[in-house]
Specification:
binds FE2/S2 (inorganic) cluster; DNA polymerase, domain 1; 5 helices; 169 residues; Ubiquitin-like (UB roll); five-stranded mixed beta sheet; alpha+beta
Length: 169
């Protein structure tokens, strides 16, 4: 046996906790996360084209259905379960509710991950074009795009120019 098949356990941080993911390293990340009870990580297409399974890996949005588990070695993973701030919904999560930025909500954890990454790498109030570009690759089968965009713009509007993203997501 050679290559990735030799790697059985993967050590990483998930939502701030050091964990070891046992078993076949070539399995998908979405399956490994859901096996740990993180059911906010959801799989739909399984092909890397819908964004539903997106989580943050080292702060970047990643489709976990096409990410082999061994790629998590030494990385920092944040799922929607870890997005709360001091035990409360983040400002971004609250704004999604306020803006009614979902219907069935199946796509919401993925959108939240990419929205947080977008807010983290930008400053000031975002335009609709900037939000739409930042959310490329995410599909919402309920068609809540306008409300999702509204929510992200609302959060971006409130943030201070010198402290662009503290605790927003
Ligand atoms: S389920 Fe992963 S991108 Fe669609
Ligand atoms: S809210 Fe239903 S798929 Fe987006």
């Amino acid at each position: 046996m050679s290559g990735i098949e030799e790697v059985k356990d993967v050590t990483c941080r998930i939502n701030g906790e050091e964990v070891t993911l046992a078993g076949e390293a070539a399995g998908s990340t979405v399956a490994a996360l859901r096996a740990r009870g993180l059911y906010g990580v959801r799989e739909t297409c399984g092909l890397g084209v819908c964004g539903t399974c997106t989580v943050l890996v080292d702060g970047e949005p990643v489709s976990t259905c096409i990410l082999p588990k061994f790629a998590l070695e030494g990385r920092d993973v944040v799922t929607v379960e870890g997005a709360a701030v001091d035990g409360e919904l983040s400002e971004l999560q609250k704004q999604f509710i306020e803006s009614q930025a979902f219907q069935c909500s199946f796509c919401t954890p993925g959108f939240l991950a990419s929205a947080k990454a977008l807010l983290d790498r930008t400053t000031g109030e975002l335009t609709r074009d900037e939000v739409e570009e930042g959310l490329q690759g995410h599909l919402c089968r309920c068609g809540s795009y306008d409300a999702i965009t509204d929510a992200i713009i609302a959060v971006s509007r409130r943030r201070g120019a010198s402290e662009p993203d503290a605790g927003v997501a």
